[in-house]
Amino acid sequence: MMKARKQTRSINLGGIQVGAGAPISIQSMCTTRTADIEATVGQVRRLAAAGCEIIRVSVLDKDDAEALSEIKKLGCLPLVADIHFDYRLALTSIAQGIDCLRINPGNIGDKDRIKAVVEAAAEKGIPIRIGVNGGSLEDSIVEKYGTASPEGMLESAMRHVRILEDLDFHDIKVSLKASDPLTTIEANRLFSNQSDIPLHLGVTEAGPLVSGAVRSSAALAILLSEGIGDTLRISLSADPVEEVRAARTLLSSLGLRKAGVRVVSCPTCGRCQVSNMFEIAERVEARLAGISADLTVAVMGCAVNGPGEARDADIAAVCGKNSGLIYVLGKKVKTVPQDEIEDALLEKVQELIKT
Ligand code: SF4
Q: Which residues surround ligand 1 with Cβ inside 6 Å?
């Protein structure tokens, strides 16, 4: 059973409401060099088309920071600037019009510098995300707990939160990520028990596509089922578009978002009538990514069991020998040559969306 969502405080991130029961938003991070405006904007647009709602970029130097206003203007998604220590980069990024700053105030150093960043963020109404990573905890915490424990991650997060709240800054989002899913689960549970600050969920350094998506989903599904989490990222060593596809699938599987078209496909067996069934299903899913309609589309490998197995789908393609049958709302509407199955399926999806 899914528990009710925890009532966290509400923050506004470039027009997206985060917390207080708002839909759980999907985030990703650009893999491009931020100063390369063309490449970064191109990636942001691809991610937006796939269903990404908030995008984070690394700001390593002045060139990156000074590219942000152009990326924000052309990239069409709320923009989070990720800065590690340099308060000047934070100030430049804020002046460039970013929507959120990811910085740990305890890492900035001098109190006047922290104050300057916090005041600039407050003036522009920009939230600050504190990101606690199990692999880079403060030395004093590692010494105290001996390892990157959930309790140590909680203490680190609370130290940074206190710095902001002592300056009367409350537009905060927190993430507590470890590469170990169980540590991530426990750290987020502990934080959620103590604070109403919205949580951004993720498992860090989760791994390549399949193992990373499974490891992330194992942790995030448990937290989400307990009502914990307001935004999420599924970090993968893969094209970030795959992160967005995985996040959408996770949220729709748990009934937390109607995250677009669900593609279901059979695993194939000896009855399968096409040699490239897996590629067809992959391509159909990729072509339907970003369509927000709440539809189920099925791709089945044979006409023996396919029609029955596709009964619950809104639109289905059932592969036969050299041909494919197209079904809409359970009724066979068309027979097409095998190489036209994908286009015919997509055409019917568009028709159904318009009705
Ligand atoms: Fe096998 Fe046909 Fe079922 Fe696919 S739909 S698993 S090919 S029986």
A: 266-269, 271-272, 300-302, 304-306, 309
CA distance 269 to 140: 56
Q: How far is the CA of 160 from the centre of ligand 1 (A)?
A: 54
CA 237 – ligand 1 centroid, Å: 32
Got the DSSP string for 140-204? Answer: HHHHHHSS--HHHHHHHHHHHHHHHHHTT---EEEEEE-SSHHHHHHHHHHHHHH--S-BEE--T
Instruction: Give 299 Cα–ligand 1 centroid separation in angstroms.
Output: 10
Domain match, 221 and 294 both: no
CA-to-CA distance for 118 and 90, rounded, in angstroms?
A: 10
- The residue whose CA has the least distance to atom 2 of ligand 1 is 302
CA of 210 to the centre of ligand 1 (A): 23
Q: What is the DSSP letter of 301?
A: S
Q: Which helix (H) or strand (E) holds 348?
A: helix 341-354
Counting atoms of ligand 1 from 1, which one is nearest the CA of 304?
Answer: 2
Say what the pTM is: 0.89
Report which ligand 1 atom has the smallest distance to the Cα of 269.
1
Give the nearest ligand 1 atom to 303 CA.
2
d(CA 306, ligand 1 centre) in Å? 6
pLDDT tens sequence across 63-76: 999 999 999 999 88
Please name which of 187, 229, 201, 234 lies closest in space to residue 215, comparing C-alpha atoms: 234
Tell me the per-residue pLDDT of 149-171, one tens digit each, with 9 for 90 and over. Answer: 999 999 999 999 999 999 999 99
Last residue of a domain, which of 224, 253, 282?
253
Pair (136, 24) in one structural domain:
yes
**Res. 229: pLDDT tops 90:** yes
Total domains, the chain:
2
Q: Is 244 in the same domain as 277? A: no
**Do residues 220 and 294 both lie within one domain?**
no
Residue 24 CB-density burial (10 A; 0-12 exposed, 13-18 middle, 19+ buried) = buried
